[in-house]
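Issue 218. Parser rejects a valid record. Input:
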Amino acid sequence: MSQSVEEVDSQDIAQETPAEDVFNAPSVHHNELLSGASYTHHAPLPTSITSDSSRECVLGVDEAGRGPVLGPMVYGVFYLPLEEHKSLLAGKHHFDDSKVLTPIVRSNLMQALCTQGTELYESCGWATRVMSARDISSAMLKPVGLYNLNAQAMDATIDLIKEVFAQGVNVKEIYVDTIGKADVYQRKLEKIFPTTMITVTPKADSLYPCVSAASVCAKVTRDAALEACYHSTRLLNVQAEAPKAIADAWGSGYPSDARAITWLKENMDPLFGWGNECRFSWSTAKNMLETKGKGIQVDWPEVNDDEQARRMTDFYITARPEEMDQDDPEDELTSWYGKPVSASVF
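Output the parser choked on:
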C-alpha cells in the first residue's frame, strides 16, 4: 500500500467522522459486514424507471473510504432520468461532494433516498459495493498475483455498472470520479460499455450531481458500517471486561486520526493483531505489529525445496516389488494405480 493513499493529513477529520446518529442505511448488511465478507446492495428500481424502461438515464460513480486503516471501502453508483439530473439533485436537494457536506446533512439525504413516497425515492436508484478490510488486505498481500487497490476498485465499478444494465436501466451517460490516469480508465470503460457516453475525470463528485449523490450513498454506507463494526468490537470488549479498550471510539478510521491510532494500540492482540475491521496491508498496521508495537515475532520453518518438488507423475511410476518398502506410505502411493500392462492384454 503506497503511503500517499494512507496519509490524508489534508482531510478534515471532523468531516470524515460518522454523524453521531448516522442513518442506518439498508446497504449495511450486518451479518456479512461483521463476518468480514464483501457484498453488494441494490436499492429497488424507482417508479420513474419501471414505468418506462426506455427512459434515458444518467449514472454516476464514486467511492468512500479509500485511505482509512479501519473499516471497508465502499463504491456507490447512482442513476436517474437524464432530464431530472441537475434540477432534482443540484437544484432541489443540493447534492455536493460528500466530503463537503456535513455528516448530518449526508445522513439526512441518504434517509430521504431510502424513504418511500419522497421525490428522491421515486425518481432515483442506487447501489453500493462494500469491500471489506479483510478482502482488501488479503488481495493486496497475496504472495503471487498481486491484486492492488486500483484494480479492485475498477472491478467493483465495472461490476456495479453491469448489474444496473442487467436490471434493464437504459443508461446513456456515465460519469466517474477517476482513480489513476483518467484517460486510461475512460478507454477501459468505453471498451466495456461502447454504446454509452462515458466521462472519467478528477473531482467529478463536485462537477456532476449524479456523482455527488453516488458519493453520498457510498459515504453514509461506510459511516454506518464503521459504526456497526465499532459497536461490535466494543460489545466484545465489554464482555471481556476491558474498560480501557472501549474508552474512545475510533473516529474516522484514518491513520491521521489520533482516535484510530489510539484504538489500534489499545486493542492489538500480540499474535493476531486485530479483527476483520482492520486493513493489515496498510503500513500503519504492519509497522505497529512488526516494529512499533508488541507483536509476537514468529519464525516459520524453512521449506525443503526437494520435498516440495514432487511431480504428479512421480506417483504413477511403478516400482519393482523387490524395490518397494512396504512400510513407506509413498511406496503405497506409487502402486496404488496398479502396474502397467502391454497392449497384448487387450
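Fixed in the parser; the record now loads. The first helix runs from residue 3 to 6.
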